[in-house]
Amino acid sequence: MWLFVPKEYTAITKLSDEYKEVDLVIGMTPLSQINNVMGGMNNGMNDSEVYCKVLKTEDFARTISHKQVAGKGMTYGEWLGEKDTIETIQDHINYNISNKNATLIISFTDREALVASQMLDSVTALLQQIVTDYRHAMAEAALQNAKNNMDDARQKYYQAQSAYNTSRSEERRVGKECRSRW
Question: What backbone phi and psi angles, to 5 degrees, belong to 76?
Fold first, then answer.
């Protein structure tokens, strides 16, 4: 009787793309629909290809190398026991993009099944954290931009109001002088 034990195990997860606001144009005016479609295309951190680029960076692999392996009492980099752990981790992280289904399949391979699943969990959690941080930073930047625009508009409004009041005062003064001459 032959018993085959695989030398590597692979844990797999599938991530679906978020809904696109482009799909939610019902009830909008035609101009806002065009604006939404033109400006709301699926790009930035909503793009699956960006996730893949993040997955294969050295910083991402370095962070994964410092994750603790549960039950082993060591980091994943120590667990690998190799000289170039960053490149090895990058090789262990694989992905497949399905643009048709808007899904990203991420897999992590290791010599032990439990470690592979733990590291895949760490990969997805880290990816989620990076995406969340990026979106938070973008939202803060948009808020700051809106505040700056509002301050600029307020300043222009007060300048225009002051100019109007000055010209109105001048008109009243000239009007009084003309009436006093009659």
Answer: -65, -35
pTM attached to this predicted model:
0.70
Strand-pair partners of 95: 106
Strands 74-75 and 68-69: antiparallel
Degrees, nearest 5: CA angle 56-12-50: 35
pLDDT, one tens digit per residue, over 5-57 is 778 999 999 988 665 554 445 555 554 544 444 444 445 556 677 888 899 99
Closest CA to 68 of 128, 106, 121: 121
Quote the CA–CA distance of 23 and 34 in Å, as a whole number: 12
Token pair in block for residue 70: 């549960």
- Is residue 70 classed exposed, middle or buried when 0-12, 13-18 and 19+ CB atoms within 10 A define those classes? exposed
